[in-house]
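Customer escalation, tier 2.

The customer says the design service returned an amino acid string that "doesn't look like it belongs to this structure." They asked us to rerun it and document both sides in this ticket. The original structure tokens are below, unchanged.
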């Protein structure tokens, strides 16, 4: 059959000629069953055997910049079906989620769509005319966009490096002055006034239990509530970020503790050394209900009005500017590889942005820069890439409202 498509930009193809277009499996991928991999690779990915949705792997045929993908039975069957180019099978066209799934497969380079005599995927198949404003007035939105643009400019970074750069963006440099001021954990506790006899210690001991650190390199000090039970596995949780400038952390902590105690937080943590003090997400409180988080945020904002802030990228800004924000972590995935079983919201975001940036750098497109493609790919995961709220996620399909201070 003819694959001729006339007078269209490549980036418009997927948007305007979806069901009537020819697709094919990307010939640079091959499908393999887990049992066919070398023994060491099987051991590395062994946890996937426990996932009922896992069927096999799509593996790059050569060092082309593509990454290995774990796929379900339906995706594997579609990939095999489209070894011969043609229209999508009728079974794929049934269901409201089918179009979104196909778009993700094309943007990820697993499938390709016909454009004239060529086959396109990635940025070349993305709708370049989708509206997006870089000036929405929100501090954290601008900060997040700066992080993505910075990562997009890193030429030799791999996906892991890009994710790390995104995650650490807006961390302040470790200066000799800060290192001299807080050389170790004991000095940090004194700085925060949580040492024995410190200003905040009695309140901590009354309502919170210090969590033992599991490793010497643990970056966090953490506490569990004495009255609010820990969140059950699988429940949706909410986390409040308090991000003051480092010099104002002890004042912020003095306000944070009674506010989250009264509102019903079940856990909170903060950086355990000077490096943790300089990261943007230096203070995090965990709640089981969004209303409880909102109550705590209101109390904190009222007491810390005018406090200089640092700001946490990829979190939802509240009406207090960059000082207070929120997010919701995905649940633990027991069937995933060990390093992916438990990801925070920001890790989840950064990993997906990094993967999209790698695709965009490989499939260069004049119609859509890499940073823009990464946003559009993340939007297909159900993330509001303007506010950074989890507008629709596998664990929160109906979370569309934004927490506001009122």
């Amino acid at each position: 059959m003819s694959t001729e498509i006339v007078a269209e930009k490549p980036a418009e193809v997927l948007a305007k000629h979806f069901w009537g277009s020819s697709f094919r499996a990307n010939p640079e991928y091959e499908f393999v069953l887990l049992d066919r991999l070398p023994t060491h690779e099987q051991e590395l990915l062994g946890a996937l055997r426990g996932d009922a949705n896992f069927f096999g792997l799509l593996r790059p045929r050569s060092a082309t910049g593509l990454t290995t993908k774990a796929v379900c039975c339906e995706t594997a069957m579609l990939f095999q079906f489209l070894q011969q180019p043609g229209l999508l099978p009728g079974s794929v066209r049934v269901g409201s989620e089918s179009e979104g799934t196909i778009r993700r497969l094309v943007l990820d380079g697993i499938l390709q769509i016909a454009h004239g005599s060529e086959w396109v995927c990635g940025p070349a198949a993305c709708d370049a005319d989708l509206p997006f404003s870089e000036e929405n007035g929100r501090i954290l939105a601008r900060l997040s966009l700066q992080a993505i643009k910075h990562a997009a400019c890193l030429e030799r970074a791999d996906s892991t490096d890009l994710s790390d750069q995104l995650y650490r963006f807006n961390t302040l440099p470790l200066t000799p002055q800060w290192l001299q001021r807080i050389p170790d954990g004991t000095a940090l506790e004194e700085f925060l006034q949580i040492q024995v006899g410190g200003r905040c210690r009695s309140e901590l001991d009354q309502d919170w239990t210090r969590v033992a650190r599991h490793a010497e390199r643990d970056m966090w000090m953490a506490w569990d509530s004495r009255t609010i039970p820990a969140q059950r596995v699988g429940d949706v949780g909410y986390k409040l970020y308090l991000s003051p400038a480092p010099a104002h952390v002890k004042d912020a902590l003095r306000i944070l503790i009674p506010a989250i105690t009264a509102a019903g937080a079940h856990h909170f943590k903060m950086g355990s050394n000077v490096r943790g003090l300089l990261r943007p997400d230096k203070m995090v409180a965990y709640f089981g209900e969004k209303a409880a988080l909102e109550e705590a945020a209101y109390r904190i904002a009222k007491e810390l009005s005018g406090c200089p802030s640092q700001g946490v990228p990829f979190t939802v800004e509240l009406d207090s500017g960059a000082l207070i924000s929120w997010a919701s972590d995905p649940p633990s995935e027991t069937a995933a590889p060990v390093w992916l079983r438990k990801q925070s919201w920001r890790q989840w975001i950064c990993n997906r942005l990094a993967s999209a940036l790698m695709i965009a750098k490989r499939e260069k497109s004049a119609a859509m820069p890499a940073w823009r493609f990464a946003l559009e790919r993340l939007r297909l995961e159900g993330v509001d890439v303007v506010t950074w709220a989890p507008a629709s996620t596998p664990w929160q399909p109906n979370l569309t409202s934004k927490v506001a201070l009122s």
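Tier 2 assessment: The sequence is consistent with the input. Residues 345-362 form the longest helix (18 residues). The radius of gyration is 24 Å. Sent an explanation to the customer and offered a walkthrough call.
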